[in-house]
Amino acid sequence: MPKIPYGRQCIDDNDIKAVTETLCSDYLTTGPKITEFENSVASFCGATHGVAVSNGTAALHATLAALDIQPGDEIIVPPMTFAASANCVLYRGATPVFADVEEGTLLIDPSRIEEKITDKTKAIIAVDYAGQPCDWDQLHSLALKYNLPLVADGCHALGARWNGKKVGTMADMTVFSFHPVKHVATGEGGMILTNSKQLAEKLRIFRNHGITTDARAREKTGAWYYEMQELGYNYRLTDIQAALGISQMKKLPNFLERRREIATFYDHQFTKSTVRPLTVHAMAEHAYHLYVVRLQNRDTVYEQLRNKGIFAQVHYIPVHLHPYYKENLGTFEGLCPVAEAAYQEILSLPMFPSLTDEEMHYVADTVLELA
Ligand SMILES: *Cc1c(COP(=O)(O)O)cnc(C)c1O
Known about the structure:
Helix content is 40%, strand content 15%. The protein has a seven-stranded mixed beta sheet, sandwiched between helices. It has a three-stranded antiparallel beta sheet with strand order 8-7-12, with no helix packed on it. The chain has a three-stranded antiparallel beta sheet with strand order 11-13-15, with helices on one face. By secondary structure, it is an alpha/beta fold. It has 14 helices and 15 strands. The chain has helices spanning 13-23, 32-45, 56-66, 84-91, 110-116, 136-146, 197-206, 215-221, 239-249, 252-270, 298-307, 323-329, 337-343, 357-370, and strands spanning 4-5, 49-53, 74-77, 95-98, 121-127, 150-153, 161-162, 165-166, 173-177, 190-194, 276-277, 284-285, 291-294, 310-311, 346-349. It has two domains: 4-249, Type I PLP-dependent aspartate aminotransferase-like (Major domain) (Aspartate Aminotransferase, domain 2, 3-Layer(aba) Sandwich), CATH 3.40.640.10; 252-370, Aspartate Aminotransferase, domain 1. Pyridoxal-5'-phosphate binds at residues 55-57, 81-82, 84-85, 127, 153, 155-156, 177, 179, 190. Pyridoxal-5'-phosphate is lined by residues 55-57, 81-82, 84-85, 127, 153, 155-156, 177, 179, 190.
């Protein structure tokens, strides 16, 4: 029987060679591979600065530190996302305020954001859920109207575009993850892209304990002196991981092409069936981290797919329904009805570049048979 996961990494001999070479080099961490990886992701997306960190969650945390978010501040977040998109707000002692999503796309609903803005609101985190960009034009209008910074959780959306513009350039800061199920894998890894030199500088200090120069910069100037000016973290990525990232970035265009090919195939197979893929906006070029469908009998389909070796997954339990949030923030069922209704029906089908034609046919046929 096959065993097909919903997502997985795609590693070849060149990736392995890149990592082994770095293992034999002078730097295992904070060396030349970090800058090279940062430049590679930034230039792919058309952003000015890239700051590599240890994972996507650290990247989210760093954006809120760079914005100097404080206890008492409110940050607007969508509920249909991985918990980390909201947890980062709690790391700063601030309060996540959930704005419900749109029915068709499950992306944050700009009109719902506006209802939630108060004089305590200090930023909006928008998640390009499944790999489809949010309506960044509407988000910009809101940001301008209320003078709020925008953070994009782009962990699903490396390579996606909105209205021709790449994810990575539209928010004040955009966050990516390089977890094995994401577009580019480094094991664990993350990055923030920004066009602001000032924000980039703050992010670099935050990832290195709050210390103003890194060891390599000190080595260059021959100076031993360094100063900690604020409380930061050790959120550094290693050169070993960055080497893998650089090698993976070379294959990103092919990865994206294959993901889109699989999505087109699924779309075609599911037309005129009870399997309902999410809506894709006309202005969006989707990056398909996930291929999400809605099914009336989701729980049975999930179970039976497992029995047939297809390991689909549910993305996500709305964040405000997690026990931690209910107990500590007083969130409740009914707070975000659109996300909650979707949660009963959504299922992410296998979607990764090395999924074979045979496998994708098997997945589509099996889903159609069960739905
Ligand atoms: C994967 C992911 C993260 C966290 O990234 P890690 O690298 O696993 O810490 C954050 N937000 C979203 C939407 C994600 O999918």
